[in-house]
Write a structure and sequence with these properties.
Helices cover about 40% and strands about 20% of the residues. It has about 500 residues and is of the alpha/beta class. The strands form six sheets. Strands 15-16-17-14-13-19-20 form a seven-stranded mixed β-sheet, sandwiched between helices. It is globular. The N terminus is likely disordered. The structure holds nicotinamide-adenine-dinucleotide. The site of nicotinamide-adenine-dinucleotide (NAD) has 29 residues, from helix 8 and helix 9.
């Protein structure tokens, strides 16, 4: 048992400053690469969340009434500070999540896309105007901020996902409360200070650290207008249902089980590189990671297995300081669960192409490292096929035709991402048009859209209507008011009419 008094005590960020936790409850934050506890993070009580909401509520009117251009100026400053402090941010991301430096830099770059789009809030806030829609009547629609809104984030992108969930929400005039992942709270606390340095008024940006207790208060609190959630599917479903019960606008993005369909005409060397990087990068802890390789035709599968085995067995796993291909998984418990999932797959009939169990992959034995596993002959119905396993074990599901691959993917509970590798335009077109998945790639390893396009899956990968990146954020975090206005001179006819207004 770790002695929590020896590690750094983190805070919340409320009313423009760091505030110590008062609940007396804490959670340990690990460096997954060393297995050491590096901090303890306070878990907010309902009362502490209420206090944070009250600060946000009080700060909202002034921020709402600031011009959109002035708000955008603050976001521009914030962007500059993120870039200026990128080395510090990389260090924080690597330390608390175990990512490689290259991956952390990628996360910053993609996160900045959301900030860039938020700088364009003045453009995205524009409404519509029609003249002469009735007798001397003009009509316009205009977007207004919602008020206090909340974002609840997962552990696997300590920076990119919070930025994607919150930048536009701030820019369009809301007061935002981020419930960061209790496993990676340090990056969110750090960027809180950058927001203040950028000129954001106190109370517009809040971080409450916590667990289900804090989340439940955010879902129930009448002042909170909207909830943006990103995390696992069971929690996403709970957030959506509970948020809806309390009358919130909710979008809840869940997990992914993403497929790479490989046609026989594809360049298999290219496919192998794409599959390995998209499948095992970040220790497979990405919602858009490729979980399942679906070669079409037995020969395609056999050829791919031969190419993949050697490359996967030679992957370098280790701490970010050693420039590995990928780092540790997030916790000891996650590692145990992944190992159990591999054992069960073998019991269920999958065959091991690469066996990552019990391998001595690094001298650093306390970190939560796992060598890569590749399972062949995986079939629908097996747990490893049906469930998202958030760690470096990937599957091959052999199919006889593109039709079979499409049918299997469409029947799966999750529908985040899919990609097809082929030189056949008709095959690509068939998949893109028939597949029931939110984000689709053609010859692209990870079909994550750029930040100025919308991002979200289908089916069990998303509950509610809304997206995480993209222009839809400006819609999600605003309400549209439609005004019909008529200015008539007293001399003009103005008789009473009991008929329903018509033009
Ligand atoms: P998680 O669902 O365990 O936690 C996400 C957030 O929900 C955290 O802030 C956590 O504190 C909170 N939470 C956890 N259990 C809760 C409960 N019972 N009630 C209320 N709140 C609860 O997810 P995670 O393990 O942190 O992140 C990994 C998951 O996130 C994976 O499933 C991954 O696919 C998914 N993810 C999805 C996307 C996407 O865009 N679809 C992006 C990133 C991650």
């Amino acid at each position: 048992m770790t002695n929590l008094t020896e590690v750094k005590e983190l805070t919340h960020f409320i009313g423009g400053k760091r505030i110590n936790g008062k609940s007396g409850r804490f959670s340990e934050v690990f460096n997954p690469a060393t297995g050491e506890v590096i901090a303890k993070v306070p878990l907010a009580s309902k009362e502490e969340v209420k206090e944070a909401v009250n600060h946000a509520k009080a700060a909202f009117p002034a921020w709402r009434n600031l011009t959109v251009a002035k708000r955008a100026e603050v976001v521009i400053n914030f962007r500059g500070l993120l870039v200026k402090n990128k080395d510090k941010i990389i260090e924080l991301i690597c330390t608390e999540s175990g990512k490689t430096e290259e991956d952390a830099l990628g996360e910053i770059t993609r996160g900045l896309e959301s900030v860039d789009l938020a700088i364009n809030a003045p453009h995205l806030m524009k409404g519509e105007y029609s003249v002469n829609v009735g007798g001397q009547i003009n009509a316009y629609s205009a977007k207004y901020p919602l008020g206090v809104v909340t974002a609840i984030s997962p552990f696997n992108f300590p920076l990119m996902v919070p930025l994607a969930q919150t930048s536009m929400a701030v820019a369009v005039g809301n007061a935002v409360i981020l419930k960061a992942s209790e496993r990676v709270p340090m990056t969110s606390l750090y960027i809180s200070e950058l927001w203040i340095e950028a000129g954001l008024p106190d109370g517009i940006w809040t971080v409450v650290n916590g667990d289900k207790v804090a989340v439940d208060e955010l879902l129930e609190n009448p002042a909170v207008q909207a909830v943006s959630f990103v995390g696992s599917t069971p929690v996403a479903r709970y957030i959506y249902e509970t948020g809806a019960k309390y009358g919130k606008r909710v979008v809840a993005l869940g997990g992914g089980k993403n497929n790479m369909v490989v046609m026989p005409d594809a360049d298999l060397e290219q496919v192998a590189h794409a599959f390995i990087s998209a499948g095992y990068g970040a220790a497979s802890q990405r919602c858009m990671a490729i979980s399942t390789l679906m070669p079409v035709g037995q020969e395609t599968a056999d050829r791919l297995v031969t190419i993949l085995k050697e490359k996967i067995d030679n992957l370098k796993v280790g701490p970010h300081t050693e420039n590995p291909d990928y780092g540790p998984v997030i916790s000891q418990q996650a590692k145990k669960n992944i190992l159990k999932a591999i054992d069960r797959s073998v019991e269920e009939g999958a065959t091991l192409v690469c066996d990552g169990r019990n391998q001595d992959i690094t001298t650093n034995t306390k970190g939560f490292f796992l060598a890569p596993t590749l399972l062949d002959h995986v079939k629908p119905g097996m747990e490893i096929y049906e469930e998202e396993v958030f760690g470096p074990v990937r599957n091959i599901v052999r199919t006889d035709s593109l039709e079979e691959a499409i049918q299997l993917i469409n029947e799966h509970e999750l529908g985040n991402g899919v990609t097809i590798f082929t030189n056949d335009g008709l095959a690509a077109r068939k998949l893109t048009s028939e597949i029931d998945v939110g984000m689709v790639g053609v010859n692209v390893p990870i079909p994550i859209p750029v930040g100025f396009h919308n991002f979200a899956g289908f089916k069990g990968s998303r509950f509610g209507e809304g997206h995480m990146f993209g222009p839809d954020q400006a819609r999600f975090f605003t309400k549209t008011k439609v005004v019909s206005e008529r200015w008539i001179h007293p001399s003009e006819e103005n008789a009473m009419s009991f008929a329903f207004p018509s033009n």
